[in-house]
Amino acid sequence: SKAMGRNQCSFFKEEMNARISERLILENSMRRGLAREEFYLEYQPIYALGAGRPIVGAEALLRWRHPEMGIVPPARFIPIAEDSGLILDIGEWVIREACRQSRTWTAAGLREIPVRVNLSGIQLRQKNLLDVLQRAMQDYGRKPAQIEFEVTESVLLSEVEMATGVLEALSRQGFKLAIDDFGTGYSSLSYLKRLHVDKLKVDKSFIHDISIDERGAALTRGIIGLAKSLNLRVVGEGVETAQQLAFLTANGCDEAQGFYFSVPLSAPALAEKLRDSRPS
Ligand code: C2E
Ligand code: CA
Ligand code: CA
Ligand code: CA
Fold it and tell me: Could you name the domain of life of the organism this protein comes from (predicted)?
């Protein structure tokens, strides 16, 4: 009936208003949270799948401890930070914090492993990204070999020209780069030839499907083969079982990370793991 239609309409309106105000609230509290040091990084170790299985890197993953809401997952606040542009300030904080932490580990005499930082597409478009990086590297005495970057495939696909240029500039500075969430972009693969990247990260949905059926396994095998033929290192993410690990190892995957090895860790816990891990 008409009456019901109207009710539904006002219901949706309320729902939408609620969503918009939730975004505004989150946006404002993110801004405040940045000033109040509510953000921190966790580090998930990444393992080489060769002999001894040493830790060869750590992915920096952003966390937000909100005073009332508790830990807010990045999937909930990063999209809002991207829409509002706040991701530039947050992203710069992440870069600087990763550099600071890397220096702390070096100072503690730990074996050097690169910290892998996720970059948002908004940051790639940031005019002064290279300056921001250079300043952070200088302030914390880091060399490009100590910091690596991950950019999601969807970002690379949405703006191929822009992304190609920025990745080339980063690569020229000596930074290693990975394509994150590879395989989820439903794209032609031709863009791969032109990109200055070093690694492909097989999206965890593929790793998950390895154990589901032969098609899942075949897809992952195909992605590994593709990466190899392009001379790229392949990283499997979201590895949760011994079976998935065995599959990746048998099929020539170079590196892996996931709950099977370790959840993302606090900086001291990562340092502890590194001390126990055999050098490469
Ligand atoms: P991502 O870069 O693909 O990161 C991998 C996600 O998988 C992380 O979720 C990690 O905690 C989770 N993970 C690790 N091992 C496993 C596993 O064995 N199984 C499963 N199911 N998941 C696993 P998290 O930390 O919630 O991050 C989600 C996304 O948020 C990241 O996806 C990344 O896109 C984004 N993100 C995180 N930190 C940053 C950051 O500093 N900057 C930007 N721009 N994005 C970030
Ligand atoms: Ca990542
Ligand atoms: Ca990923
Ligand atoms: Ca992802």
Answer: Bacteria
